Amino acid sequence: MNRFRHLQTIPDGPFRFIAIDVETANKSNASICQIGLCFVNVRNQLQTFSTLVNPEGPFDPFNTQIHGITSDMVTQAPNFADAYGALYAVLEDNHLARHSRFDERAFEAACARYEMSMVTSHWTNSVQVARKAWPEFKGAGGHGLAHLKKVLGLEFHHHDAGEDARASATVILLAEERMRAPLPHLKVERQLTFQFN
Questions:
Q1: Would you state the pLDDT for residue 185?
Q2: Per residue, what are the HEC states of the chain?
Q3: Is residue 153 one of the residues assigned to a domain?
Q4: What is the pLDDT along the chain (197 residues), one digit of tens a residue?
Q5: How far apart are alpha carbons 26 and 79 in whole angstroms?
Q6: Which residue segment(s) compose the domain that 96 sits in?
Q7: Domain presence at residue 84
Q8: Labelling 151: which of 88, 103, 158, 171 has CA 20 to 30 A away?
Q9: Residue 135 to residues 144, 154, 170, 175, 197, Cα–Cα distance (Å)
Q10: Is 5 part of any domain?
């Protein structure tokens, strides 16, 4: 499933930060069935990546109704261990962002399930960033992606992991514009590995 033309390989850095979103197959946070990443480079240009993940477990009809992913769609997809293993280095070497704690908790749960180390990167919550930039939304629709999409004029397909990751990154960039300053911790400082031909 790649309706939104997300990249299938990791783009070249360096990156200011990477926004992350996941979709899950059922009520278990560990049942990740899609990982979406939005890479924000030093010029604040966005590139999205998405991969389906085989959760090696059942799909609840409720979850499928939300994101449209079915068990048939993930039969050839990597399981979390393989997908996460392929992404680990770039996630470990960059600042990460997510909209609410759900996505980070899902990674923690899936890492525990597969007995893998959780990345130690710094996580930024774009909900908290939005609260600082637009305090007037408190009690007036809130700071969820659905409301921010409406009031900020964001264009994305909600509940596709790549699209939601892009929305989270965009919220941070728009908040920086509104506050007239970049978030000081979202800067290129951790990528110290270079490849030479």
A1: 86
A2: CCCCCCECCCCCCCEEEEEEEEEECCCCCCCEEEEEEEEEECCCCEEEEEEECECCCCCCHHHHHHHCCCHHHHCCCCEHHHHHHHHHHHHHCCCEEECCCHHHHHHHHHHHHCCCCCCCCCEEEHHHHHHHHCHHHCCCCCCCHHHHHHHHCCCCCCCCHHHHHHHHHHHHHHHHHHHCCCCCCCCCCCCCCCCCC
A3: yes
A4: 467 889 989 999 999 999 999 999 999 999 999 999 999 999 999 999 999 999 999 999 999 999 999 999 999 999 999 999 999 999 999 999 999 999 999 999 999 999 999 999 999 999 999 999 999 999 989 999 889 988 998 888 888 999 999 999 999 999 999 999 999 888 765 544 434 33
A5: 15
A6: 15-179
A7: yes
A8: 103
A9: 13, 18, 17, 11, 50
A10: no
Residue 184: C-alpha distances to residues 93, 103, 181, 189 (Å): 17, 23, 8, 11
Both structure tokens of 147: 């409301």
Q: The CATH number of the domain where 131 resides is what?
A: 3.30.420.10
In a domain, 137, yes or no: yes
In this structure, which amino acid lies at residue 46?
L
